[in-house]
Write a structure and sequence with these properties.
Elements: H1 3-11, E1 15-22, E2 25-33, E3 39-47
Antiparallel strand pairs: 1-2, 2-3
């Protein structure tokens, strides 16, 4: 996934959790509701100095 997709998901996120930290890498879990009201979530592995816009 690209940073653009992560930024889009962050804007509609219901919940953002730092799931795991290992050295200079972080696993970020983003959860949101789709149009039908079903909760969806994805995990992203981020490395040091990556940026996400809110």
């Amino acid at each position: 996934m690209t940073n653009q997709t992560i930024s889009e998901l962050v804007k509609m996120a219901d919940k953002i959790v730092i799931d795991e930290v290992k050295g200079k890498k972080v696993t970020l879990k983003i959860s949101w509701f789709d149009l039908k009201g079903t909760r969806k979530s994805k995990k992203f592995l981020l490395t040091e100095k990556e940026k996400i816009e809110f």
